[in-house]
Design a protein that fits this description.
Elements lengths: L2 H18 L31 H7 L4 H4 L11 E4 L8 E10 L12 E7 L5 E8 L5 E8 L5 E8 L2 E7 L8 E8 L2 E2 L5 E11 L8 E11 L4 E2 L13 E4 L5 E5 L8 E6 L2 E6 L8 E10 L4 E7 L7 E6 L4 E3 L8 E6 L6 E3 L14 E6 L9 E7 L37 H13 L19 H16 L5 H20 L7 H4 L1
Parallel strand pairs: 2-8, 9-12, 10-19
Antiparallel strand pairs: 1-4, 2-5, 3-4, 3-6, 6-7, 10-11, 11-17, 13-16, 14-17, 15-16, 18-24, 19-23, 20-24, 21-22, 21-23
Amino acid sequence: MSKQHVLRLWIVLLPLVAAACGLNMSGEPEIVSEAEIVSLPTQPVTATVTLEVEAALAATPTVAGVLPVETTLTPAASETTAPDDAADDTLMVLGKLIQGTADGPRIPGGLLVELYVLDTEGTPVAVRQTVTEEGGTFVFEDALRGPGFVYFVRVDYGGIPQGTQISPIQGTEDEITIDVTLYERTADRVSVVVTRAQMLVNFAPINEFGLEIRLDLDLLNTGDTIVASDDVSDSGWPISVSVELPVGAFGIQPMQAQGSERYQVDVVDSVPVVRDTWPLRPEQAHTLTILYYLPYTDGAVLDQAFGYPVMDATVLLPNDTVEFDSQQFDAEGEFRYRVLEGGLRVRELEADEPITPETDTTLIKAHDLISPLNADERMLFTLSGRPSRTVNVMRPTVKPSGSGESNALSFVLFGTGLGVLGLAAALWWRQRMVAGPVKRAPSAWRPPDPAAGEQVLLSAIAALDDAFEAGELDETVYHERRDILKERLLPYITGESHDPGAAHDR
């Protein structure tokens, strides 16, 4: 196997290495309101991974099939480096595998351990392999060293890639010692809780599609085992958690990087279900953001089952004439946010910011959960009335496609989330830049053929919204083109046209 081929393989596996270290390098944005963004650490970190990584990763159904544990290796580490990018200096990495699950078996010797090395520009410069001695110890001698280098240590254990991150180094170290905690695997989700659920309702597309909903969930594993079920997604990855959506939800789009197959959307007994394939580590939080539509005329009961205890939840509603009622939430609510362009982002009001609810249609009212919900309780609230003031205020800037496998929807906003290191935040930002909308010459735009199908038309709307949000189109041209696409899409939404791909998408 050539050095270039081996290097390509470990680049493909890098997102899983990051996940094993408790980081999110996949490009999936953990989207929160602007008010919740945490200030990033001042330590300059510029490592990055391109979006091509996940696309390639999706073609690799099992990690063991690429770098098998049975590979014949001696305790002396083998090395593959990137041509012309290797640093001259080296250091020694000494480590030990630690059992993190109470009453878990002793970690055996002979496990394959990998060391991934990234320089300050995020360029992969080396991958090292060795095997553990009895007692779980391992050594990487002569590992490449440089100021700001980042290291990931990865081990396959319990059929799940696990590991840890070594923070950016000074570049003068001769030796680094690291413990890698491994956990047993469980399919039991009893340790999973929803620490925060936030549902933002957008009335803007009500005449086109209905209610536009953005659901943000923070799920935390409070146990000491990795949550990953025996069920696998279509891409071959084990499913960790699943989230049901209200019956009737359509246009479902989990927010993720283009080309990603992290999430899968299924319909089980008429109930839409979003499945996450990232293993959930102990004390690690996953943030899921899902956009979808619900039919709405002049009233609806939103019935949401999570299947996990819900510690805190908030429903955010535009300042309109629609009435909110619930026995679980504060029905009165309070104006706490202001909506941003597009209706899918909010910012928190300043402490002394004046507001005029009678005329200000950008205000957002927050209705907080009164008390936590048990795992078997459903989140329920009622909306009644027809919106009359905000339909033309919060115009959509992004549209979900009709498939959980299509990822044309670009990122809206993302922050650090719970327990995520500054390195991951830097990686997300750089990936966001990579995933930004492609520059399009106005004269080159052509609408899809009306017979292209619902998914193609939804993707075209999302691409058009991206271009407008990026300042590539003036408002007049944007609305003219969007109206053309909406007109071609409406027959699919109303059921007047048959889309051959729709049954598969939903």
